[in-house]
Amino acid sequence: MEMIKLLIIGVIQGIAELLPISSSAHILIIGKLMNLDISSSLLITFHLGTTIAIMIFFWRKIFKNFLSKSKLLFFLKIFVASIPAAIVGLLFDEIISEKLRAEWIIALSLILWGIVMIVVEKKCIKEDEERLSDIEKISWKQAILIGLSQTIALIPGTSRSGITTITGIIMGLKKFAALEFSFFLSIPILLGTFIWLIIKNPSISNFETIVGQPISLNIFIILISTLMFGIITLLVLNMMKKSRWLTVFGIYRIILGGIILILFYL
After folding, report:
1. 214: buried, middle or exposed (CB in 10 Å: 19+, 13-18, 0-12)?
2. How many domains in the chain?
3. Buried b / exposed e along 78-113 (16+ C-beta atoms within 10 A)
4. How far is CA 38 from CA 28, 78, 124, 139, 164, in A?
5. What is the pLDDT of residues 223-263, one digit of tens each?
6. Per residue in 44-58, pLDDT tens?
7. What are phi and psi for residue 252, nearest 5 degrees?
8. Strand ranges in the chain using DSSP code E only, listed in sequence order
9. Entry pTM
């Protein structure tokens, strides 16, 4: 039964991590409804699956002219932009885990940023032709400010891809370019967090501290499901890039936030 629950969480993670709807909100709420303890270790492990999905989906952009000066400079901007969220995440991990996972915080974050998404998309449509579409030409100022916004995403319900996309749009990127940059920005932060988790907890190498059992075919299946659904989600997003998807997801967030408030407080 636990395997089925974890598999469900893996599928949800593969979809929600890459959409601006907050994977942590979905996983934490569904985990509570299924009476499954969702630890930070488990969340980070599932993040690994979506990170690999991003690397597979964008492998051409990642490795094209890999050693060129412009590409190395782009990678450096991503690395530097990832530092603020990494530092804040390490310093305040316990506070985030113990204090910021309340249902009302998740619900209000979903609603607040859902409204912001709708407003930002309405504004950016009028100016879209003047915006930056090539993420490798992003400036240091744009990269660092987008990276700083990732710190807000440490609050469950915010959505890392959502807040970085919003910030990218405000900073002059085209809507899908902002989302694409947020995916590239997620690679070092998620991989770095996973590596830090292994260093901090050596026993995690056999997954004992994550799911209470040694690494097995079950865990492999869960990670593969997260990876597969992550790639499917990226394909769907690519097909939606010319539509008003921020507004669609913004409305979804507002509805979900309302449902959470009703379920847990009424």
Report:
1. exposed
2. 1
3. bbebbbbbbebbeeeeeebeeebbebebbbbbbbeb
4. 6, 29, 37, 38, 25
5. 788 889 999 999 998 888 777 899 999 999 999 999 999 98
6. 667 788 889 999 999
7. -60, -45
8. none
9. 0.87
Widest distance between CA atoms in the chain: 58
What secondary structure letter does DSSP report for 182? H
3-state secondary structure of 21: coil
Residues 6+ apart with CB under 8 A from 119: none
Please answer whether residues 153 and 107 qualify as being in contact, where contact means their C-beta atoms are separated by less than 8 angstroms.
Answer: no
Calculate the alpha carbon distances from 256 to 22, 99, 118, 133, 263 in Å.
11, 21, 15, 31, 10
DSSP assignment of 95-141 equals: HHHHHS--HHHHHHHHHHHHHHHHHHHHHHGGGGGGSB--GGG--HH
What is the Cα–Cα distance from 183 to 238, expressed in whole angstroms?
A: 13
On whether the CB atoms of residues 187 and 51 are closer than 8 A, the answer is yes
Rg (CA), the chain: 18
In 10 A of CB 245, how many CB atoms?
Answer: 20
- The single-letter code of the amino acid at 82 is S
Strand partners, 132: 173
- Secondary structure of residue 173 in the 3-state scheme: strand
User: Which domain range does residue 70 map to?
Assistant: 2-265
Residue that is written with structure tokens 């299946």 in the block? 221
